[in-house]
Amino acid sequence: MSNPVEEYFELRKEAGFLGGLWKGVSGGAGATAVERGVQMGGDLRQGALQTGMTVGAALAIPAAQKVVGALRKRHDYNQMMDHDPGLHDLKEQDPKFFNQSFTSLRRANPGFGSDPMISASYMHKMVGNREGAGLAVAEAMQQNRPAQELSLGVRGESSPFSPSMKRKY
Predict the structure, then answer these.
(1) What are the residues whose beta carbons fall under 8 Å from the beta carbon of 80, sequence distance 6 or more?
(2) Residues 66 and 13 reside in one and the same domain
(3) What would the pLDDT profile of 41-80 be if each residue is shown by its tens digit?
């Protein structure tokens, strides 16, 4: 056969039900019970191995995201400290509060936390006025607005030209 589609279906036909898992079990030509058991065991072992690899890969993704997030946070923190050397003095006063403030700022508004100038300004505001630190974080959180998505206007109201999509200044 020279047609790849026909070859594929011929191979599927030869493999039988579930890719040959039950090949030889339902009255195969001369296969003993032991041979059938060995065949099934091998197939089940291969299926379990593939399932384990899939689960392992699925678990590795969140772990990799956490590592990348930690590296990004460290990078942003170092950039902020390099941008404003005066922050070193503020950090020496209360390192735990300083680090908690930076973490809160990043969680409230990741864009502000990643910009060295903005994050340094907020850190001065938060560490200089501990009682108002929460308000500064809340202010940063209010400024965290997701980017507005443009659509093709399928539903009418979401059209970029509709009155609801106009910017309010």
Answers:
(1) 87, 102, 116, 119, 120, 123
(2) no
(3) 777 788 888 888 888 888 888 888 888 888 999 999 999 9
Biggest CA–CA distance in the chain, Å, is 85
Whole-model pTM over 0.90: no
Two tokens, residue 113: 């936390």
CA dihedral sign of residues 62, 64, 65, 70: positive
Domain tally, the chain:
2
Contact 138, 130 (CB under 8 A): no
Beta carbons of 47 and 39 less than 8 angstroms apart: no
Separation of first and last alpha carbons in the chain: 70
